[in-house]
Design goal:
The structure is a single chain. The chain is of the alpha/beta class and about 375 residues long. Helix content is about 45%, strand content about 15%. The protein is built from 17 helices and 10 strands. The longest helix is centred in the middle third of the chain and has 15 residues, at about 195-210. The radius of gyration is 21 Å and the shape is globular. The protein binds pyridoxal-5'-phosphate. Pyridoxal-5'-phosphate binds near residues 93, 192, 196 and 295. The site of pyridoxal-5'-phosphate has 18 residues, from helix 9 and helix 13.
Length: about 375
Amino acid sequence: MSMKIEEYKGVIDRYFKYLPVSNKTPVISLLEGDTPLIPAYKLSNQLGKKFEVFLKYEGLNPTGSFKDRGMTVAVSKAKEQGSKAVICASTGNTSASASAYAARANLKSIVLIPKGAIALGKLAQALIHGACVLPVKGNFDDAFRLVKEISQDYPVRLVNSINPHRIEGQKTASFEICDALKDAPDFQILPVGNAGNITAYWKGYKEYKSLGKIRKLPVMCGFQAQGSAPIVKGHPIKNPKTIATAIKIGNPASWKSAEAARDESKGLIDTVSDRDIIEAYKFLSSQEGVFVEPASAASVAGLFKLKKLGYFSKKSKFYLSYSKTIKIVCILTGHGLKDPDIAIKNIKEPKAVEPDLKKIVKLLKLK
Ligand SMILES: *Cc1c(COP(=O)(O)O)cnc(C)c1O
């Protein structure tokens, strides 16, 4: 008996015909994508019999966030077009991803980050991959403005999500969800920062729909942190504030297309508080066994908020009466180990004990 095992080669290989690549494109891949869609039994129970909640765990990408999906395309195209360096502004994960893919492609990586405002794990990644990291005395929006100007005047390729190749790569996540569920989910919930990701998902769903690969489109529900919610408030935020550093952005680059995704899908973009985010963060780790960074928990905080408002039942009344299950996918954008400080702040630090068996057994209440 011969068994053929098909080797997974990353998102460009798997979704080649849907991406702006050709056989001439040198594919720079770390085998990103193919992330699990984990059934969340406890979340599903909380919502009720007719609901099924899934977690798209993007923290399992090679550098620990969904940014890798876009970066494989952006860096491969930069390489194809002869770039020698890439540049980005970052709240952390873009820089980690750009630096890893640049290292693999023998490109120089330049990163501008808001000083003191990115999680330790992400800074460590950019540095260890050999990036030139410049902390800017300002916020993300200041850093972003600078890299846009630099990339216009100097020979460096901008790999923030205004680079369309980033969006193209990131849309593969919606393809994977549809391939797994054999259709689009009824609702998709995700955090919104610079708004490239909601733009990418919506683009992916629409493409699959027009190809006839799915029957329906999901309702898109985006969540911003309360102190950093320009789209919800309707104006840029000068000094955005939130513990969820990955979505601490006051003037999103893809603002318009995020609103288009919201409106075309008849969805919403709303806020969650930092307290809601931490509550969801702890729920995910202690109840579902899935450890994410705070920004990612915004999607589950949003799920809880919408459940309280009766949003899903109201919105899916039609389906419910036909006793079909309603599928909700929450996007978990980044890994928990990115931001260990937040985890440690939210647990009781354990006290050391003497190496004494009896005492330890007693302490553990094993009898
Ligand atoms: C980048 C990022 C976001 C925000 O995505 P946008 O495309 O900027 O809206 C959310 N969570 C994590 C972990 C991220 O790295």
